[in-house]
Amino acid sequence: MGQEFIIKSQNLEDKINQLLPSQGGFQAGVDLSASTQIIPIVDVTETAEGSLFRQDLQTSLSLNSVTAFSVSNTTTTIINTTGYFRIFGNYSATSTNNSLIRLTDGTTTKILINYTFSTAGNVPNIAFDFVIFMEAGHSCGVVSNSATGFVRGVTRQIADIAGNLTNP
């Protein structure tokens, strides 16, 4: 049988109150305690949540889970559905060009990445890789203002709007 110890730590009490609000926090006469007894912990979180794959496997790419895009001298919507999406690819140019990736709700537009190249010659590929959250009515688009600027990549939905991971 293990030994019991009383723990006096405001930081630990605050963390317990944050993680377990239904416990009503610490009240007079209630202390945290620790024990020297070893108790095994079995984590069944993934199964309890309905996840059968590790998260890194659920975000893997497959032929049917990615949508490729290649934008040059035009504006293209690459995502217009709700959820969490990974967007990755690269930008390149051979002469003066301005290209960007943006989010919009139809009224307000926010530029996520803006590439400007203003000299002659080739721009080496500049990689990008990020995750966005799409609400209903929002869209993500790519803009390239000349035929010499290229934004190429893929999108992959990694979770639905509620945060449930999407299998490939």
Written account of the structure:
11% of the residues lie in helices and 45% in strands. The mean pLDDT is 83. It has two domains: 4-39, no CATH class; 63-159, Jelly Rolls, CATH 2.60.120. It is elongated and about 75 Å long. With 168 residues, the chain is mainly beta. Strand 6 and strand 7 (109-117) form a beta hairpin. A four-stranded antiparallel β-sheet has the order 3-10-5-8, with no helix packed on it. A four-stranded antiparallel β-sheet has the order 4-9-6-7, with no helix packed on it. A two-stranded antiparallel ribbon has the order 1-2.
Main attributes of the structure:
45% strand, 2 domains, mainly beta
Task: Please give the structural blueprint.
Layout: E1 4-7, H1 10-19, E2 32-35, H2 45-48, H3 55-58, E3 66-71, E4 75-79, E5 83-93, E6 97-104, E7 109-117, E8 123-134, E9 139-144, E10 149-159
Antiparallel strand pairs: 1-2, 3-10, 4-9, 5-8, 5-10, 6-7, 6-9
